[in-house]
Design a protein that fits this description.
It is a single chain. With 70 residues, the protein is mostly helical. Helix 1 packs across helix 2. The chain is flat. The mean pLDDT is 82.
């Protein structure tokens, strides 16, 4: 069941990417709407990921940069 769900999400993401590329090359008006929806969704997901990453990854950022803490 999880593979089916992942496949559906992958197909939707690929279709959104195709819509963005097609809209950048001109495309019909409805493709511009699909592209806009895809870009807004990507912004929302990026903002949610950034928010959740701040609280969990804050303590390890110094170690990742090579800071020994001395």
């Amino acid at each position: 069941m999880m593979i089916v769900l992942l496949s559906i999400v992958s197909v939707i993401a690929a279709a959104g990417l195709a819509g963005v590329v097609w809209a950048a090359r001109g495309g019909p008006r409805w493709v511009h709407g699909v592209a806009k929806a895809t870009l807004v969704t990507a912004d929302v997901v990026a903002a949610a990921t950034k928010k959740s990453g701040r609280s969990s990854g804050r303590g390890s950022s110094g170690a990742a940069l090579g800071d020994s803490g001395d």
